[in-house]
Design a protein that fits this description.
Elements lengths: L10 E3 L9 E5 L8 E6 L4 E7 L8 E5 L11 E8 L4 E6 L8 E6 L7 E6 L4 E4 L2 E2 L14 E6 L5 E12 L1
Antiparallel strand pairs: 1-13, 2-5, 3-4, 4-13, 5-12, 6-9, 6-13, 7-8, 7-12, 8-10, 10-11
């Protein structure tokens, strides 16, 4: 039986020459909504944009990576260089197989339309499920089994959105 390989990531770059991580949009259409989004790869960044529509009490969108078994247990900080439209975005780290299951999340607030580098202490990530913060301490054992990352348009504000990301570093 083959043993699964676990990656210890140091940096995820974006752009047309990055091949390990594949990013895809996922919208509320899977739950009856009508939000839309798209991804555009540039030389050294990715643009994630679309429109949030509140239909059938569903208003969400995210861009997420493919699944790769990863160990972040030795890291203490996630650094992300990004540019937002001023909306809040959540950076999420999934450790369960299903997208609807519990995950770790950190809310990002930035000034609009400025490249910003944010540093997210891993110890301050919150366990979340269905966009609700769970009242529990960070379970450090899940950091050795991170499967996927996502950027989630937060707070169900309807209308257009745009997020650009240049890199994610694990420090």
């Amino acid at each position: 039986m083959k043993k699964a390989i676990t990656l210890i990531p140091t940096e995820i770059t974006f752009g047309i020459h990055q091949y390990r991580y594949r990013w895809l949009p996922l919208d509320d259409k899977v739950t009856g909504g009508e939000s839309t989004s798209k991804l555009e790869l540039h030389h050294n960044r990715i643009t994630y944009s679309g429109i949030i529509k509140n239909i059938n009490n569903s208003a969400w969108s995210c861009m997420r990576s493919n699944k790769i078994n990863q160990d972040l247990s030795t890291h203490t900080l996630v650094e992300i260089k990004l540019k937002t439209d001023g909306r809040p975005y959540a950076f999420e780290m999934e450790y369960n197989e299903g997208w609807q299951n519990e995950k770790l999340s950190f809310m990002i607030h930035t000034l609009p339309y400025r490249w910003t580098t944010v540093q997210l202490p891993i110890a301050e990530f919150k366990h979340m499920k269905f966009r609700q913060i769970l009242d529990k301490e960070l379970e450090k054992n899940v950091l050795s089994h991170i499967l996927r990352y996502s950027f989630h348009v937060a707070e169900e504000i309807t209308g257009p959105f745009q997020l650009e990301v240049e890199y994610i570093k694990f420090l």
